[in-house]
Amino acid sequence: MFELDIIKSELSLELLRGLCDMSNSRIAGFILYTRKHANIVKILKDDDYWCSLDEISGPNWPIFAVRPLESRYCSRRGSPIPGTISMMVPTYHEPNANRRVLKYFGLEESGHLPCFIVFMWDDNNQLCQIDWKIDDYSVDTAYNSIKEVVDLISKAEQEILPEYKMSTSVFRQVKSEIEGSKFRKSLLRICKGCENGISLMGSVASLVK
Fold first, then answer.
1. How far is CA 46 from the centre of its chain?
2. Residue 167's beta-bridge partner residues?
3. Is 7 part of any domain?
4. Which of 41, 178, 180, 192 is spaced 20 to 30 A from 206 at the CA atom?
């Protein structure tokens, strides 16, 4: 894996492509987060966590981690007339330092972070990507969330024959694995919601008897 400081080193197509060209597979990962995501910061500063992810990803595909982006700041607008009741409307402002990075990966705002972006350039030089939301509730959940997507990518990448690792087949395989995982999670949430609903109805029914 590589660690890329895009704040000190300007993010550019040439820079990123050059680093990706050093890998043995046509796929890469990018971890994006802000200063408020302290658990992500702790993971990336911890050599044990970093080395663990490095062991999973292996030598074939790189993971880039950026310095934390600046957090959005909020201002509120309300009625300027004293003594009147009005609804304060929050307005979020994206620091200029973030815009280049977010625009590069097609993200509108840092409110969507933290996330793990899986990407590659296709045969038409277009950037293809899949976004994986990172759970930043705690250090453990954040690490497990990153580890889960790294596991999925590594599994898919290993299934591709060596002669096809630099083809777009790698991205298609990875995309299939990640979308399948997201679908299964959605089903589990729906099933859990149904079970909770049935349990609640059963409790209500027992009370009215």
1. 19
2. none
3. no
4. 192
Number of domains in the chain: 1
Residue 38: exposure state from Cβ atoms within 10 A (0-12, 13-18, ≥19): middle
Confidence at residue 75, expressed as pLDDT on a 0 to 100 scale? 44
CA dihedral 140, 145, 150, 153 (to 10 degrees): 160
Distance (Å, rounded) from C-alpha 104 to C-alpha 14? Answer: 13
**Residues 71-113: tens digit of each pLDDT:** 544 444 444 545 444 444 444 444 555 667 777 787 776 777 8
What pLDDT does 209 receive? 56
Domain for residue 152, yes or no? yes
- Residues 76 and 92: their CA atoms lie apart, in Å, by 9
**Taking a C-beta distance cutoff of 8 angstroms, is the pair 93, 76 a contact?**
no
Residue 81 lies in a domain: yes
Nearest to 134 by CA among 150, 148, 119, 145: 145
Encoded amino acid at 130, one letter: I
Token pair recorded at residue 26: 């046509």
Structural domain contains residue 6: no
Are the C-beta atoms of residues 76 and 44 closer than 8 Å to each other? no
Instruction: Please answer whether residues 20 and 28 qualify as being in contact, where contact means their C-beta atoms are separated by less than 8 angstroms.
Output: yes
Helix 139-158 / helix 47-57 crossing angle, nearest 10 deg: 20
- The residue range of the domain holding 198 is 13-208
- The proportion of the chain whose per-residue pLDDT surpasses 90, expressed as a percent, equals 34
